[in-house]
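Chapter review: from sequence to fold.
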Amino acid sequence: MKKCGEFHFEPTKESFPIRVGVDNGNFEIVLGGNYGDKKFRGKDVGKLRSDAYIYLKDLTDGKWEPFVIVEHSKWGIQHDHQIYLEYKRVFRLKKSDGTMVWKTWNGPDGDYEGEPGNSTYGPSKESEEGSYIKVLPYSKEVWNGLLAITKAIKTIDKKIKEMIAGPGLEAKLKLISTRTQNVLGYVSGDKAGRNK
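The token string follows.
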């Protein structure tokens, strides 16, 4: 394709190249990475400009709202003892036609405030077997809850490593199997009283 002009979007002072296919005469406007590389193609360059303008106007005038995508999935897990938990903060805009546009969370990891960044994908399809996905409105409390789960997973992982690396693993596993000791190495309350 060969560049044959530019499309200017005045509200944001951005310009995008217009290209034409030398073999078929089709025009193309690509909005670039900040807009998910959205493409407009066709024979009528005036209509393409209009469609691109409406699309950009929706994105720049709309209200970007913060959300958290939380996913627990069996996809890619080969054993029952593996855990898959993924979550991320994003911004979402609901366009006038009902479609959703997603942007990355732009801000330091430790901060609770952010702003829309580059285009990103929304959640995977919820219908995939063994996959559980929730899209929640973002709040400090929701984010802190997810961070607490991550902290708990890291604590459990550390205890498992210590148990395996330390002495007496076989004996500990036998105690766990008889419920004299729980998985994390603490004596359970009901057995502790009987074993005194």
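Two observations follow directly from the output. The chain has a mean pLDDT of 83. The two ends are 83 Å apart (CA to CA).
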